[in-house]
Design brief:
The protein is built from 1 helix and 13 strands; from the N terminus they run H-E-E-E-E-E-E-E-E-E-E-E-E-E. By secondary structure, the chain is mainly β.
């Protein structure tokens, strides 16, 4: 009696998965791929912001001094309003009648702002338009995007200024359209600002810039 043949180790004894199971596996892979793509598109790249505008309409801003940043553009021709009070009218006094009268109180000065610099936004990595004005009351500085400002929306956008090559963040962009105010950080000289920009921090991309002078 001849011995039974040994099994061929190269042959597979496992049956291939059924065709419907293979379709299910491929379907699961496709769904997972779509989910990953959606997370990347919406969670990382923020593509939804490119088609949705955020419009802001900030009015006048009152500073700590009581001075008010105007909402209707420059307050003067670039030199700002005078902070000195008008001179008091001259009154001739008779020495005998008013010799013991108390002196009048000193004139008070109203807090006021000065337009330091202005410029128009132009496109860089994205289109941009509108006006950026920089104001100061002598203590605080404010960057104001006027109501004609507009650029594309996007993820992780910040309003920034440049002093030389140094980029200084003012805060997250409040909207890609419309008027908005940003207070300069303490220690930043408003007159030293060279440019105002909208910057995407996530991708280090400058959307639009206004060179100011």
């Amino acid at each position: 009696m001849s011995p039974a043949p040994l099994p061929d180790p190269t042959s597979s004894t496992e049956a291939a998965p059924p065709r419907h199971r293979r379709r299910w596996l491929w379907g699961g892979v496709a769904v997972a791929g779509v989910a990953v793509a959606a997370v990347l598109a919406f969670g990382v790249f923020g593509v939804q912001t490119l088609v949705v505008d955020d419009t802001v309409d900030e009015g006048a801003l009152e500073l700590d001094s009581g001075a008010v940043i105007p909402e209707d553009g420059p307050v003067a021709d670039g030199s700002g309003p005078s902070t000195s009070a008008p001179p008091a009218p001259e009154v001739e006094l008779e020495a005998d009648a008013d010799a013991g009268a108390p002196a009048p109180p000193p004139a008070t000065t109203e807090p006021a702002v000065t337009l330091v610099a202005t410029g128009g936004f132009t496109g860089e990595d994205h289109p941009g338009e509108g006006t950026a004005n920089i104001y100061t009351d002598g203590t605080q500085g404010v960057v104001r995007f006027e109501d004609d400002f507009a650029t594309d929306n996007g993820p992780d956008l910040f309003a920034v200024v440049y002093v030389g090559d140094e980029r200084i963040e003012l805060g997250r962009l409040k909207g890609n359209r419309g008027s908005q105010n940003y207070v300069l950080p303490e220690g930043v000289d408003p007159a030293a600002v060279d440019a105002v920009s909208v910057w995407c921090k996530r991708f280090d991309s400058t959307f639009t810039t206004a060179t100011v002078a």
